[in-house]
């Protein structure tokens, strides 16, 4: 199994989107076969992960869009913090990652054997179906949580293009079909939204 860690010195990088150091570790039978740190250009991040065939990405905070795009290439475990050596040790021992979640993240994000049971719990439809979240639980008058979220509750919309992260081929986006479900007509790689 190949695991990628977004790192800054000896810790997991706090923000994946601005980190340019990726450590790739090859693990076989709970033993490390090799490990190497790569300095990457964030503009080339998708082709980097395609070239290296990573099975699992462990990182700190990550934008929703980047997490969604990378999850088409690999399993992503976000919002992890702490010493990279402690994270690697937990990985080798197949331990739960809940102790390494960033402050404020739900502790029940990882239940049981994370390598076998980890499922990204992305919300695909909000409760009322209109992009707004549930009412806040605070005292009356202290905010009701009726906002559209930090990105405005909007997707990319029906227009635009799908782009191949491998060869750069562009095709028109088909309404109702996510780009990550489209295969590149030239090389067969799963595409991303451009």
Automatic annotation (TrEMBL):
Q: Where is this region: Disordered?
A: 127-151
Which residue windows does the record flag with biased composition (Gly residues)? 130-151
Which InterPro entries is this protein grouped with?
DiNase_FeMo-co_biosyn_sf
**Which superkingdom heads the taxonomic lineage of this protein's source?**
Bacteria
Q: Which SUPFAM superfamilies match?
A: Nitrogenase accessory factor-like
**Official protein name in the record:** Dinitrogenase iron-molybdenum cofactor biosynthesis domain-containing protein
Q: Which organism is it from?
A: Thermodesulfobium acidiphilum
């Amino acid at each position: 199994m190949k695991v990628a860690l977004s790192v800054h010195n000896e810790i997991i990088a706090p923000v994946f989107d601005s980190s340019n150091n990726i450590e790739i570790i090859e693990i076989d039978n709970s033993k490390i076969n090799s490990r190497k740190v790569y300095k990457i250009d964030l503009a080339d991040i998708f082709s980097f992960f395609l070239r290296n065939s990573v099975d699992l990405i462990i990182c700190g905070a990550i934008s929703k869009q980047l997490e969604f795009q990378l999850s088409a290439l690999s399993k992503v475990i976000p919002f992890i913090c702490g010493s990279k050596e402690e994270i690697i040790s937990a990985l080798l021992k197949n331990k739960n990652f809940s102790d390494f979640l960033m402050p404020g993240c739900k502790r029940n994000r990882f239940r049981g054997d994370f390598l076998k049971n980890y499922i990204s719990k992305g919300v695909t439809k909000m409760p009322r179906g209109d992009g707004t979240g549930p009412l806040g639980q605070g005292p009356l008058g202290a905010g009701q949580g009726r906002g559209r979220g930090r990105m405005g509750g909007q997707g990319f919309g029906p227009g635009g293009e799908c782009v191949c992260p491998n060869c750069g081929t562009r095709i028109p986006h088909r309404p109702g079909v996510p780009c990550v479900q489209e295969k590149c007509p030239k090389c067969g790689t799963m595409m991303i939204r451009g």
